[in-house]
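ok trying this again, last paste got cut off
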Amino acid sequence: MKKIKLGFVGAGFNGQIGHLDSFKKIKNCDFVALAEDRDKLRNLVKKKYKFKKAYKSHYELLKNEKKLDGVIIVTKRNMTAPIAYDFIKNNFNVFTEKPMAASFMQAKKLVKLSNKKKVLYKIGYNKIFDPVVWKAKKLFDNQKITKDLGRIIMVKSHRLSGSGYPKQPNYIDTNEKNKKSEPFWPSAPSWMNKKYFKDYEKYLNLYSHNINMIRFFLGDELTVKSANLNDNYISSVLLNYKKSIPVLLTTGFFTKEGWDDYLQIFYENGYLKINFPPQHISGKSTDFLFHRVNVGKKNIIYKSNKTWSFDLQAKSFIKDLELNKIKYNEGSDILKDMLLVENIWKKYIYEQNR
């Protein structure tokens, strides 16, 4: 079995619990090079995960490592895109955490370059790799053919965030401050007033998962009808699916211990509801209820604790590298997520100022 040679940029909390652990479980992964600015953390992570080499910056890694099969980038959000750009420019296959960039134009720049260089560019929306989600998607797609439950009458995506992380996460923490601040790109679109930047960054980081899942099920026939983005209470966005079917997206915060995250598709004679746990906590299952009314068929309840979406996402990227083709979450597809997020914010700002 051919070893897949990997480089990592960033070894912080999310880099460790969400990615390094998952890739390390894959037998044919060869951890070649790590880039991490924090000295103690870099040395300890290098030792724990048995990297052959470690560098203080991604520039050093780029200069010294020419034969990597892929690079995983998990760093500060305003640094993710420019670091990805540097690697893509130098002909590396790249996987980054979400969001892929801070704006549609930044994301478009990355996709254009990856297409020009003919390299793989994958974005980390791990939820779609959950086998429960795939089973639900199969039922949804089957309804398009059988129409047992009638037409879709409404869709609701809902997330009230709380603590999405393990209470006692297994990761190396050296208490070093992450002072790295370059390279960086602007944290919001160029057309946006600075007073919206902080709320926009937060919305993009947290709720792009919801946008991604909506598109995964419904596709691209989505337009923005209205938007009220107020995270002090609950933000609500109304989309239209196929011009007339309402899609309601509600987001905000719960208590520190709470979590309420689901996608629900309503039909004339039932619904499909998928409940998502905090994705960083392994061992908690996504589940769904396929509720069928007056059609002579039983409800379907499904869940699975056997797999973790981060592990399956890592396996997916390795498979992409082996086949030299990205199957899911390719940059040009996630670019559509970015456009939808910006259209939501344009609608909100327009309604605020009219």
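PB: full thing came through this time. The chain has two domains: 4-126+312-329, 127-306+338-353.
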